[in-house]
């Protein structure tokens, strides 16, 4: 992976300079954003929303900063992107598997697929597992309501979710 961007603006500039980024490249940029946000004291989650091969929104989890439990990265990306028009057919790249709230919002907005790096089993040792919420809501993920595609991560889950002192 290339050096970490210092802000979302740098991330956008680096992505728009790429020609036809692959799913893996979009996901790696999402992980860069999540790592940067974690290093700045935020929660270790980020999402990019891409439509027709162009970045429409980049977002991080703002729960801590806003004191609002709905400020997940995917929700933030949806909020930002929806200001630019319909989202049907867009793709979301997320650092982690979407929680039920985010997945529902993605489905309701016509997102065509989600590519992510870490699933609930990867996140569970660090307390970032949403499978209990899926269970309580009795929401099976088989079959998924839209394609949920886990891609290989160039970093281990511990690098993103582990202790700030690692």
UniProtKB/TrEMBL annotation:
GO terms for biological process: purine nucleoside catabolic process. One of its GO terms (molecular function) is zinc ion binding. Keywords: Metal-binding, Zinc. Gene3D superfamilies: Cytidine Deaminase, domain 2. This is tRNA-specific adenosine deaminase. PANTHER family: CMP_DCMP-TYPE DEAMINASE DOMAIN-CONTAINING PROTEIN, CYTOSINE DEAMINASE FAMILY MEMBER. Residues 21-131 form the CMP/dCMP-type deaminase domain. It comes from Aeromonas lusitana. Pfam families: dCMP_cyt_deam_1. It comes from the Bacteria. InterPro entries: APOBEC/CMP_deaminase_Zn-bd, CMP_dCMP_dom, Cytidine_deaminase-like.
């Amino acid at each position: 992976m290339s050096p970490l961007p210092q802000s979302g603006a740098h991330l956008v500039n680096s992505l728009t300079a790429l020609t036809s980024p692959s799913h893996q490249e979009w996901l790696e940029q999402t992980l860069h954003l999540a790592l940067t946000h974690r290093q700045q004291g935020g929660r270790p989650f980020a999402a990019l929303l891409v439509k027709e091969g162009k970045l429409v929104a980049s977002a991080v989890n703002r729960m801590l900063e806003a004191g609002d439990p709905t400020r997940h990265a995917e929700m933030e990306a949806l909020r930002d992107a929806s200001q630019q028009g319909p989202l049907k057919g867009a793709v979301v790249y997320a650092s982690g598997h979407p929680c039920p709230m985010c997945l529902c919002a993605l489905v309701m907005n016509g997102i065509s697929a989600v590519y992510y790096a870490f699933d609930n089993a990867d996140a569970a040792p660090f307390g970032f597992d949403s499978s209990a919420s899926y269970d309580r809501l009795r929401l099976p993920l088989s079959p998924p309501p839209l394609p949920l595609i886990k891609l290989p991560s160039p970093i281990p889950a511990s690098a993103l979710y582990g202790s700030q002192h690692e």
